[in-house]
Amino acid sequence: MKAMVVAGGIPQIELIRQLKDRGIVTVLVDGSASALAVPYADIFYHVNIFDIEAVKSIAVREEVDFLITVCADQVLLVVAQISEMLGLPCYIDYKTAQDVSDKIRMKRIFRENGIPTTDYVELQSLNMEKISRLSYPMVVKPVDAYSSKGVRKAENAEELRRYYAEAEQISRSGGVIVEEYFEGEEISVDAFVLDGKAKVLAVTNSDKVKDRDRFVIFRGKYPAKASPAVLKQIDEIAQKIADAFGLVNAPLLIQLLHNGDRVSVLEFCARTGGNMKWLLIKYSCGVDVIKATVDITLGKKPDLTVRDTGNKIVVNDFIYCYPGVFDHFEGFEELVQQGTINEFHPVRVKGTEMRGVTSSSDRIAGMNILASSVEDFNQKQRRILDSVKVISTDGTDMLRRDLLTDL
User: Fold this and answer.
1) Whole-model pTM?
2) Average pLDDT of the segment spanning 376-396
3) How far apart are the first and last CA of the chain?
4) Over the chain, what is the mean pLDDT?
């Protein structure tokens, strides 16, 4: 068999490894010639992965048996569309992929099916009169972006106008959604739908940089701080989403906020969590969601058995930097060898210009840390802070140490 893997980030490296373990030849397509997964694929094409005709022509030329990606919602849309065009297997059809990848379509379906979410307006051009029924602060989002790009909190009309213009530029379709702000703690829910039944696998907290108007995640941590009542609502919401969007066999990532009593769904997608999220799931509950995604694509029943891994605390910490040109890391690999860091995954290569922290895509690396207690984690984190650096081309340490905090 031959598979086309669309996008070449950290999770696609693991995807390619697993496909090869099954004896499947891998054809990788990515818009960057230096994509992280390039050395792992059998065949590589440097192509704009959102150019449907270009990607489809490669799939035809290579005679692939299926297309696949993990951890990427806008890329899932590409995979679903081309799979449908070519009559190839995919766990989601193109219309459903559109519903779960476009924030306006998603919010409409939330509202129609009683899924709790904030009030909103959908816009193709700025209309302050239409927005006036909402209360400040408001959140402005491009309808089809990812990694929190263009997502800003506006406290007044002046900020709203400015952030709307930014979001409109980022959105490929030009669509923007404006919604009321919900004050609460963010939770990320990783689930899997099998035969129409949603099964929650891991519930984690998403810690964000304390900027006034941005929403950039710097940490995912298990277990989540949430009451039994909130966890019960999460189970119900996961099933409501599966039913409302007609998901039969699919991974499910839900991002929501809770204030102790009420829950508000931000968004979701029929994919596994991005970047290193699959590690957070694997080490917290023992389920391999990348393997499960390959299984359902190939028409096989995945193993979703939740197991006690013995890990009391599982954390994904993302490494961000001050602006500068990246040269090299120091100290991380030694801490992996010592067991302080469980896994370390660079995201950027030497010579990359780092812009600071404006979206989740600005991270330079990520690390997975396992701990037996909060104090065990905090001790490991202090050793990390004492031992690591991210060095720029001018020899300075670029690391945002303030984001590597205690629990």
Assistant:
1) 0.90
2) 98
3) 46
4) 94
Q: Which residues contact 158 (CB under 8 A, 6 or more apart)?
A: none
Split at pLDDT 50, 70, 90, the class of 147 is: low
pLDDT in tens, 188-222: 999 999 999 999 999 999 998 877 677 888 999 99
pLDDT value, residue 62: 98
Cα dist from 196 to 208, 278, 354, whole Å: 32, 22, 43
Q: What is the mean pLDDT of residues 233-254?
A: 97
Would you state the structure tokens that stand for residue 276, as one six-digit string?
A: 């290193």
Phi, psi for 94 (deg, rounded to 5): -65, -40
Place of tokens 């930014």: 166
Alpha-carbon distance of 41 to 43, in angstroms, equals: 5
> Residue 312's Cα: distance from chain center in Å?
23
Q: Which of 196, 199, 197, 217 is nearest to 207 (CA)?
A: 217
- R_g of the chain, CA atoms, integer Å: 21
Quick check: 183 and 138 in contact, CB under 8 A?
A: no
Q: Give the number of other CB atoms < 10 A from CB of residue 63.
A: 8
- Show the domains of the chain with their CATH numbers: 2-90 (3.40.50.20), 119-180 (3.30.1490.20), 185-297 (3.30.470.20), 313-403 (3.30.470.20)
pLDDT tens for each residue of 35-68: 999 999 999 999 999 999 999 999 999 999 999 9
Pairing status of strand 66-68 against strand 2-6? parallel
Q: Whose structure tokens read 């950039």?
A: 216
